Amino acid sequence: MEKDLTVHNTGGADLVIEAIITSCECTNAGLDSTTIPAGDSATLHIEFDSGSYGPELFGEVMRIVILVSNDPENSEALIRFVANILPPR
């Protein structure tokens, strides 16, 4: 699964993304720019590999992507997503 999300900077100064953390190795995430000027936005690309644990993993799973930034009021933004992995046929 792949998904692009838009990260908006609604503040009055540059938003600097200092780290992108994922909840497991099955999830990768990256921004097209780690510095987002005030009033601008960047694209966050998330990739989830449901097959990374083999055929044993199926059912509903939740994964998290955390953006760590220089925002003085909210230094961590959490993005949660749920995938329903179907058993192999």
Could you characterize what this model shows?
With 89 residues, the protein is mostly beta strands. It has a single domain (2-85), classed as Immunoglobulins (Immunoglobulin-like, Sandwich). It is 0% helix and 57% strand. A hairpin with a 6-residue loop joins strand 6 and strand 7 (76-85).
Structural class: mainly beta
Categorize the overall geometry: elongated
| Uncertain ranges | none
CATH class: Mainly Beta
What profile does the largest beta sheet have?
A: 4 strands, antiparallel
Helix content: under 10%
Elements, N to C (H/E) = EEEEEEE
**CATH fold-level assignment:** Immunoglobulin-like
Q: Number of helical segments?
A: 0
Q: Order of strands side by side in the largest beta sheet?
A: 4-2-6-7
CATH architecture: Sandwich
What is the strand content?
Answer: over 45%
Mean pLDDT: 94
As for the number of domains, it is 1
Secondary structure: number of strands: 7
Cα end-to-end separation: 19 Å
CATH superfamily: Immunoglobulins
Rg over alpha carbons: 15 Å
